[in-house]
Amino acid sequence: MADLYHQEAIQEILGIAITRHSQSNDFSKAQLLEIAEELGISHEECLLAEQEWELRCERQVAYQTFDHHRHAKLQQSTAKYLIVNTFLLGLDLVTDKAVTWSLYIVFSWGLVLALNAWKTY
Length: 121
Prior knowledge:
single chain, mainly alpha, 81% helix, 0% strand, rod-shaped
């Protein structure tokens, strides 16, 4: 075993040890403060860290909500593209007996849709 550990290694080792020690993965706030005290972390530092963790969780939820909204919007745009362009291609085939002017719309709208998909993903 090494005598010196990086901060990431310490976090991983302690996380594994806490998980193995506990029957359930839930700890009370009192237990959190007790663990922090044993590690030499003051109550104030621990409470500040808890507040930062809560902010990170809130941001993560906001990012997930935003991503879900963008994906849903892209799906709606794709559905509109398919419906409208199928109609236009059919109209072009019925009126001109060939695909002519509708290709300009299909390709230009398809390019915009592809760029939106690129931005989304």
